[in-house]
Task: structure prediction
Amino acid sequence: MIKIDSFIGIFYLLINEYGGIGMKYRRLGTTGVKVSEISLGSWLTYGGYVEDENAIKSIHKAYELGINFFDTANVYRRGEAEKVVGKALKEFSRESYVLATKVFWPMGDGVNDHGLSRKHIMEQANASLNRLNHDYIDLYYAHRYDTETPLDETLRAFDDLVNQGKVLYIGVSEWTPAQIAEAIHIADKKLLDRIVVNQPVYNMFNRYIEDEIIPLSEVHGIGQVVFSPLAQGMLTGKYKKDVPAPKGSRAADENGSKMLARYLTNENYQRVEQLEKVASDLGVTLAQLSLAWILVQKNVSSALIGASRPEQVEENVKAVDIVLSQDVIDAIEGILA
Result:
């Protein structure tokens, strides 16, 4: 029989190790902060595409399930997504979650309303804080690389935001290995705050980061927070060859179908059929299998999902409990080869 004090000890051990029962947590790069293995984003969903009420319910469900990492960007619906995310998170203790947003893409028609100049970064950091209605941003990304601004100007601006307490950590999104390496070199040389996170696209059908990005990141303590882990819905199994896209899905929308075009190939349709059999044998969904496969990669700090309904969050977070054997991983690699 387990003594009560022993049980309490085990409970707190679980809390300290995993941050809660169910969800699992990883370090953000090599920093001391821990984020949920599944995080929730707001690209193409909140601030317009999805009703605010459903968006807020999805964020609240995510938090309830142990997700502590929420991602948005100033450009998503021109600031409207930040407003929705900030409003939803205001109901919770600020210390209990990690909030990320981004800067780079145009936020106006002026010549200085885009990029990574000191002017644009400083102005947009303050604008994002106002829209989010928060005092600080946990993680601030350079949403793309700016070829027109000296990199040391960009890094100095980020460093100043950290020193001002408006930003805690900095990251980049979709930078090349050479760009990341140069940023690390400049930061070390000039004693500026270092990049701790890279946010790339990564899924079973798009694995470009495995060649150079991940090896470079492992050397320099940079973690990956990956987006489009389900290949924009292709890895949910809802798109079938020669079958019209489900009503209301991204592929049914003209703009969405253009973004999905790279994934909607005959080869990928065949792969999805085979992957669905693997998932079925394991008693999980294809989406859960796809997320579990990503989490096998130790350099991944978190997989960023989107959700228009709370039920989608509930289904996707189950991926953290799936342990893939080497035989299953080998079977998946055989299908993807």
Remarks:
- Residues 266-282 form the longest helix (17 residues).
